[in-house]
Fold this sequence. Notes:
The complex is a heterodimer.
Chain A: E1 5-12, E2 17-22, E3 25-30, E4 42-46, E5 49-53, H1 56-74
Antiparallel strand pairs in A: 1-2, 1-4, 2-3, 4-5
Chain B: H1 10-23, E1 30-36, H2 37-45, H3 48-51, E2 56-63, H4 65-68, H5 71-82, E3 87-90, H6 105-110, E4 115-117, H7 121-130, E5 136-142, H8 147-160, E6 165-171, H9 174-182, H10 187-190, E7 197-200, H11 203-208, H12 214-220, E8 224-226, H13 231-247, E9 252-254, H14 266-275, E10 276-278, E11 281-284, E12 288-291, E13 295-297, H15 306-309, H16 325-329, H17 361-369
Parallel strand pairs in B: 1-2, 1-7, 3-4, 3-5, 5-6, 7-8, 8-9
Antiparallel strand pairs in B: 10-13, 11-12
Amino acid sequence: MCLALPARVxxxxxxxxxxxxxxxxxxxISVALTPDTRIGDYVIVHVGHAIGQIDPEEAQRTLALFxxxxxxxxx
Amino acid sequence: MKxxxxxxxxxxxxxxxxxxxxxxxxxxxxxxxxxxxxxxxxISRYGITELLPAxxxxxxxxxxxxxxxxIGRIDQAIHLAxxxxxxxxxxxxxxxxxxxxxxxxxxxxxxxxxxxxxxxAADALKVARHHPDRxxxxxxxxxxxxxxxxxxxxxxxxxxxxxxxSVLCCHVLTPAAITHILHSPEVAQYGTVPLDGFVGPAHVxxxxxxxxxxxxxxxxxxxxxIAGFEPLDVMQAILMLVRQVNDGRAEVENExxxxxTRDGNAAAQAAVADVMEPRSEFEWRGLGLVPTSxxxxxxxxxxxxxxxxxxxxxxxVPDHKKCECGAILRGVKRPTDCQLFGTVCTPETPMGSCMVxxxxxxxxxxxxxxxxxxxxxxx
Lengths: 75, 379
């Protein structure tokens, strides 16, 4: 039920709507709940609405943490 | 797909598992509840249980909105479709939930009820615009993730002055339910499962932030780690919980920093606060009446409230006697402890709510785990 997927914003439309791309599939969604969204951002899409945005730096930091852990284990 | 595939790397998962095994201390117990159905699904689907050492046990929580929706609420939606002539729009997840008189929304549709599956709340409003001569009710369920879109659609209907649209608001609140599991009169009846920490919600936390869990962690001295729904997120959160238990800490930590902040989504919170207010209590399937655990439509939007509009009265209905959903939702029993599991109750013909949604503990175990219970014998 709370399923939501990260999708890239391709274009912004009128009335708080936007087009997102999800692995090649494009869909019109509402960005009324994420008013600061810009083209190129990744938003988290749930029931046709962006409910949040992905912070690319934080995503990188989490991945780096996994990599660091992996290095420790293989050493 | 970006931000998904990187978080499903099997080799990394095994390395995090090795780290967990190395940090688990002998003689200590690590029983963690993943509150969300999304985590339950990930744990079953990606075989996370198999990667964990014996001392770490994952207990499935009640965080599946379809599973906790009580029979009485589905009865109300069916009543509106069959007896009041309304078009009832709802998310696909609710269609197969068993209701009274051997009905479900799906079966009520087969009996001629005008019940329509929608992808979003906005689609329900579209139906209302297309049928100005009919009453259109959006049967709104879900946790804090799904609530803001419902609030937006009510605001939109008010702006457009749509007179034939209303919402049967069954939105529920996560922090109230987590607290209720540890502290409620029914704990005496069901017993309570010893829990050493919680994997906190992913998408719910995007909306509400991490701060609402802080009073809970402090009051009950239980660590909470908010985690994303991908398998590496769950593994990392378990490692963080193991570390908190080892250090004797009970803090709210955030593994899902790429999407969750401490304060959450302000625009979403503002929309919800404008349209809805807490109910004094709400019945949860399996948990009973939980105080201030759900939302209703505010007075100023009264015309869009289906309960007021159709003068609906709530009537609770008990579950099937043999159904163990109540105990399973609290983590006291496992799906295989239920006599109905996999016999008369399957995802095709669910008896209890935990079998309905793929996020329910029973459906997840049926789909991905039931062959694990059968010992492998050499031919």
